[in-house]
Each structure stands twice: as structure tokens, then as C-alpha cells.
Amino acid sequence: MKIVYLSEGSMYVCSDGKVSQLPCERADKYADTVNEINKNKAWKHSGRGAEFMGAVEHYEDASKQTNIFSISSAYDGFVYSAVFGEMGAIYRKNADEPKAPEGHIYTGMNRRITDICFRDGKIAAIMDGHLAVFDERGDYDEITDGASAERYPFWSANDNRILCSTVGFSIGGDGGVSPSSIMAVDTDAGKMDELFAEENTDLIKPKNDSEGNYYFIRQPYKEPRPKKEPILKSILLFPVRLIKAIIGFLNAFTTIFGGEPLRKNQQKGDVKTKTKSNRELYFEGRLLEAEKNEKENAASGDKNPSILPRSRVLVKKAADGSETVIKKGVLDYALCDEGIVYSNGKEILLINGDGEESVIAKAAFADNLNILK
Fold it and tell me: Which helix (H) or strand (E) is 293 found in, with range?
């Protein structure tokens, strides 16, 4: 079995249990080109003269401006979506020849293309938060719009519908967001139907099989709320913050023009940072307490404990309406002839038709799982 997946923005292939990273030709070319341009302009914006004129500019490494969002199996390889700076893109890649030239499908300035799913020459994609369908020439039709946002498109196994998750935004502009529900978009008939929705619950990553069963991940809904500091606390801390700001300014001033910092214990170029434990991570905008979750899952008797919370579960809705929780602590999953391949955040595993579970490979944060044909 050959599986391609993403992990923290990089592409990987797992073949017969062996994992290797795939290079991204387009990301490398973009980074090299932008870094060379910045290098040629650097003389204008560095040095004492630029400091005197207030023209100092610091250029970020262009590799940090590239982000691979999604992959989907296609023909003898897969397609992937990415954002390079201000440009959204879709490319084709051969997993068997990772260094071969990548095929171009689409690039667009000021476009953000995230989740994608390929089938029969068409790509269901999330572009700027809404569903669109691309062909292999890069032409596209925008399918949805309005005060909502879609994610995780999946071509139905039974017909020409596209399954996806959707959230609605508050019309009043107070930043409210509804729980994520699952809908089916019929591109031929031009209609949308809500399939599954629950109060205070997010339903994401929908899929179905040829037997009429639906699958999705369920997790507790958490409405994003900006943290507001109490007014009294802000008033009391104002003098302290003002003093810290003045000291920080003087320290920067003496470092630039005097050649050494005001605070003698600070090295030149040092920046005081707060480092987090590598087991304290953010996933889908939420703080993921990986070590805590893993201990709880192990204590519950899980053979291969996940670093995801047990409240994030993979669900199967059978054609007769019955429901089964297949697995708890699932990061991502893919349907295949052998059963269900899934990621627990540490490994890629297989649940076969008899319900038996086995580890395919060690793979940290494996997401966007795709089985190559």
C-alpha cells in the first residue's frame, strides 16, 4: 500500500511501511526566485545610510511564505494545492518520480486555495473559503458564496455530488460562527442539501462509500472568542507597560547607534522569546495537549493511544441510519479496499474489515491521507 500525506506543511509518501519526504519543486523555485530578488534589493535598505534615511527593510526568508495545504490522489500520482506569497496554486506531481517536473494546473494572484479533492479530471477545491470546481486546464466554476465558509470537499462515491463541511457566519458582524455541518452539493442540478448537523458539535471531513455509508469526524464545538482583558486590569498595568516600552525603545536605540545593548546581559541580536514544549501544539486553531491526551487514551486501554482528545471521533453512518463510532482520537482518515487507514497524530494505522488494528508506519501529524492507486 502506498500512501501520500502532509505533515506540518511538507509532503510525504509511505510505501510498504517506509516513509520518505517528497520535494516540492514549485515551492523551492518560488523561494529561490524571491530570495534572489530580495538579495539584489538589499543594498538599498541596509547599512547606516538606510538607517539614517529611515529606509531599513528586513526581508523574510521566502521559504516561510510557502504553504502546502492539501493533496489528493490522481492518476499515477497526486495533485496538491499551495499558497506562495500572494499566489494560490494547484500542481500535479508523480510520487514514483518525485524529482520529475511538476505539472501546472492553476495559479492565481490574491487567491487562497486550501482543501482539494480530485476525480475524473475535475478538482473540487476550496478557494477563498468557498467551493469551486476546476478542470485540468485550470478553468473553474465558483459553486458557493455568501456568509459561510466551506472545507474538506470530497467527491461522492455514488454520484456527482460533492460532500463538504460548512460553517455560517453571524450576519450581525459580531464574529459568531456556527458549528460545522455536512452538506452535499449537486453541481449538475445546482442545489445543496444538508446531510448532518448537530448542536454544539462540529462535523468535519465527510466521505462516503459505494454502499451508501457516510463517514465523518465529530468533535465538540468551540466558538472562537477573542479574549478581552478587563478594563480595570488594563488601567492598573498601564504604568508598567509604559515603562517597559520606554526601556525597550532605549535598548533598541543604544544597540543600533551605540553598537551594544543597554542591558548588558543581552547579546546582540538576541530576542527574548517564550518557548513552548514540543508536546504543546496547536491544531486547527486549538491548543493540543498531546502528552495529556496520550496518557488519557492509554489509561482508557487504547492499544495505540492517540495524541488527539478522545472527544474527536470517527463516525460511520450506515445506509439504514444506524451509527457506529469507529475510533476515538482520529486526526485524519481515508477509505480503502483493505478497510480504513487513519492517523492518530503519531502513526498511520489500518483498521481492516474485521476491525483489527495494525500500525503501518510511524508518522508524526500525518494529515490529508490519500491512498495511491
Answer: helix 290-299
CA–CA distances in Å: residue 74 to residues 60, 106, 119, 138: 34, 16, 7, 15
Phi, psi of 38, deg, nearest 5: -65, -35
Inter-residue contact 24 to 30 (CB < 8 Å): no
Q: SS3 breakdown of the chain: % helix, strand, coil, rounded to 5?
A: 20, 45, 40
In the chain the first and final C-alpha atoms are separated, in Å, by 9
**Cβ(23)–Cβ(98) under 8 Å?**
yes
Each of the 373 residues of the chain gets a pLDDT tens digit; together they read: 899 999 988 999 999 899 999 988 888 787 777 667 666 655 454 545 545 455 445 445 545 567 899 999 998 799 999 988 888 999 999 988 888 999 999 999 999 999 999 999 999 999 999 999 999 999 999 999 888 899 999 999 999 999 999 998 766 555 568 999 999 999 888 889 999 999 999 999 999 999 999 999 999 998 755 545 555 655 666 666 666 666 655 554 554 445 455 554 444 344 333 334 444 466 666 667 888 999 999 999 999 999 999 999 999 999 899 999 999 999 999 999 999 999 999 999 999 989 999 999 999 999 999 999 7
Instruction: Using DSSP, state whether 49 is helix, strand or coil.
Output: helix
CB atoms within 10 A of CB 305: 21
Tell me the sheet residues that pair with 313: 218, 328
Strands 87-93 and 77-84: antiparallel
